[in-house]
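Exercise (ungraded).
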Amino acid sequence: MTKLAKEAYKGNVKPIWCPGCGDFGVLTSLYMAMAELELDPKKVVVVSGIGCSGRLPAFVKDYGFHGVHGRALPIAQGVKLARPELTVIVVGGDGDGFGIGGGHLPHAARRNVDLTYIVLDNNTYGLTKGQTSPTSVVGYQTGSTPYGNVEEPLNPIALTLAHDASFVARGYSAQAKHMTELIMEAVQHRGFSFIQALSPCVTFNHRETFKFYASLVQPIPVEHDPTNKLKAFELAYNHEKVWLGVFYQVKKAPWDEKIEAVQHRAREKGPADLEKIVARFA
Amino acid sequence: MEARRDIVVGIGGEGGEGVIVTGDMLTLAGARSGQHVFTTRTFPAEIKGGYCNFQLRMGDEPMHSHGDALDVLVCFNEEAVINGKKDLRPGGTLVYDTAPATEAQAQRVPGVRLIGLPMTKIASEELKAPLSKNMVALGATAYLLSIPFGSIEKLITDRFKRKGEKVLAANIAAIKAGHAFVEERCKDRVRTYQPVKADDRLLLSGNQALALGTLAAGVRLCAAYPITPASDIMEFLADVLPRFGGAVVQAEDEMSALGMVLGAMYTGRRAFTSTSGPGLSLMTEMIGLASMAEVPAVIFDIQRSGPCTGMPTKTAQADLLFAVFGGSGDAPRIVLAPTDVEDCYYVTQKCFDLAERYSMPVIMLSDLSLGHRRQTVPRLRLPENGQGNGQRHEQPQQWAHYRRYEITESGVSPRAVPGEEGGFHTVTGLEHDEFGAPCYEPSMHQAMNAKRFRKFATLAREGNGVKLAGDAQAEVGILGWGSTYGAVLEAVARVRGEGRRVKVLYPTLLNPMPRKEIGEFLRSVKKVVVPELNFTGHFATLLRAEFGIDPIRLDLCQGVPFTPGQIYATIKEVIGRD
């Protein structure tokens, strides 16, 4: 396939996000990564759940599945299981992925399904107009927490490390070039790759703003060994800085290879012959 | 001795005593000697132990139900006598272990032939193999039923030879001892029959037939969460589906299971999930998604007694209204119900065909009694390539300006799948225009709802399978669904044998209802009886809504299937009302 311009990956539907939304930066990086990787649009499926970022599949010219709240990962795993040759990219927000859909993340990670999961984290529920989210800080005041949020926020990087994901990274919407590189690395990684994409909500979240991140974000030190999980945890729990880059990456057999191995073992036991299988019941 | 065409045997005891193994061996040996068989069993609620019971009906002709009263009751313990004696017909045979408590109970059962069989004593004292107690009972029962001893011996050898010579020898000795004990004392067998070779049949459970049906349909993914009474479907396929290049995935929950199915079906591969009521509850939102996004999906609900966790090991037909209506908004889905074990194989394949042709979720309602009963069935029609079918239907004819949700007369829009050039689209659970772009225009929502429901009208034009039985002309009609069919057929045969007229209609398709066929049936009779295993009369409610009739309801919700006798009594009562 000849290389396409990033514009070739733009869908016919125009984004409905607020002007200045962090999600635009992530979307642009996704277009750029797809162009750089020379992905054939007909062999890409972008899957999402519900939320502001859940609308993203319609903005990409490829195959898309906009599902229900929190269930993007199950749908994406079904796609990958059925058609391992497809490139599967899952997008969603912090509420979709860590709140309502939190039960699926550990399992997609431990299966090491070969897909890329980008969580566009804005620390709030934007689509429903600014309620508190699983990554909102204590004290965060919203319509659903008028006296301030009393629940500890989740740490998405630490959480995903704990689930044994084989690729864990963090990017920032305002740093499009770096985000593009991360998405490219994640898509090329054989196995479950997770990117926390910091994506400020300019309408409802007045804490985690572009200004807030400007002084905090910093590239992960070059000497960090991405195969060292304990060091990755240390970086994840370092609250002085918001580290950007690949926290952790290891090689592990992806799900499709393991399933193929099972198919091989099953064929050693007997042929794919329905008549023979039915004969067991004669 | 009475010449009996068929016989019903019950075996009861403590879980772990080998009740089920004994029943299975009798069933298999009976089937291999040319008999038709029909089994049912109850599971103990306990994880280990607890009372369990196996029922086998065996005869010269094909049978449709597990029968009525027991001709023979084999009791491993006191509890089995207490639980089983009410089911034993007068003059029946009660075989019991001679342990004092069991013997004392058995002696108090009036009007039956008593056979005290020292199962425990023979196994423990004579054979020094206490675990072979059930084998003593097996040998004795096989004698009473005239099942060829050689046939039992072969089954036991196949089953135990891998456990070593010693274990095998002990088991063979035990069946011989049981056989000999009864042979010496009871000259009268309960029934005799002529063994024949019958290799035109299979011995299958409803769930096994269903699983084979998915293979014949070319399924490549089963994603499911373990639940009684559906787990054996995924377990069977976990062994064989990978041979066909497929996979069985134990999902983290039922929402994930159905999500995986939608993902796979979206790409043009066949997939399904199997579950029971509690799992179906969790899948509700995703059923709405499949309906709205027009992504095919197949769900097998092996119903059990509810609500909530209910009675997991007991049967029911109480998910019908939920299957038809469960969910938010107006979400069309197809609902089917097989009526017997053989039907499970064919209706399963129809589910995939309909799901793909109508781009819609399809729910098939089986139940515990149908899923777990084992029955001799005629040889199955297999797909010609031995691999299963499974071609996607309705490929787009042209790609210029491809519209995934094109508004068509049939309601069905051509479906592109990933990999196809020019078929780009995003399926969505949001209301959308023809291209799939989110759209909340009032007229669009109206038009899209109409399009989605128009598929039902198209489906109705196909002409749909209903089962008609009984008299062509009758004043009383039985209109039912699902697994109750067999008991109804036998009850109707009995009523007709007495010279009374009655007719039967069982639609396989429950949603949308085959209006034409049901309408004609309703117009042809004066009274309609609707038997179903639930408390509120689900099917009767649907019939009332669709046809404005007030049928005579026969609702039973005791966790057990109907006996033909219960149906027979109701028909007689309804006929006698004039």
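Further reading is listed at the end of the chapter. For now, observe: Chain A touches chain B through 57 residues (CB under 8 Å). Chain A has a mean pLDDT of 97.
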